Known about the structure:
Blueprint: H1 4-49, H2 53-56
Amino acid sequence: MxxxxxxxxxxxxxxxxxxxLLTVYGGYLCTMRGYRFMQKQKELKxxxxxxxxxxxxx
Length: 58
């Protein structure tokens, strides 16, 4: 049988590791969302620059 202190230590380490993984994954998701946003803005700017000036007068 595992002593209570050792079991608590294992539980704490497991919980801490899972929180670290969730934090890293959340950072990854935020970074990818920001990257996609920047790419979309770049595409929209390029599309606006390539349009006919007559179309942009409206």
